[in-house]
C-alpha cells in the first residue's frame, strides 16, 4: 500500500513539474498567423493577440463607500405598489 502511495505521489510531482514551462508562441509549421483585422495596418504578433482588450477587461469605474460614509438618498428607491 505504501509503495502505491509513493508511486502516485512521484507521478503527480513529475506531472506538475512541467506546468511552469513556457516558450515563445509560434504558429505550427505550415500554418500562418491569423489575418490582420479589418482596418489594421499589420498582422498582430502572438503577444498582442494574447493581451485582452479594454472591452474584454474594463476598468472598475464605480466609487466604493469608505468605512462609515453614509449613502446619499436615492429618489428612485420607491416601495413596490
Short description:
The protein has 81 residues and is mainly α. It has helices spanning 2-16, 46-50.
Describe this structure in words.
There is one protein chain. The longest helix has 15 residues, at 2-16. Helix content is 25%, strand content 0%. The protein is flat. It has helices spanning 2-16, 46-50.
Number of contiguous helices: 2
The helix-and-strand class reads mainly alpha
Count every beta strand, where a strand is a DSSP E run of 2 or more residues.
0
Tell me the distance between the termini: 68 Å
The level of helicity is: 10-25%
Please specify the SSE layout and strand pairing:
Blueprint: H1 2-16, H2 46-50
Features:
2 helices; mainly alpha; about 80 residues
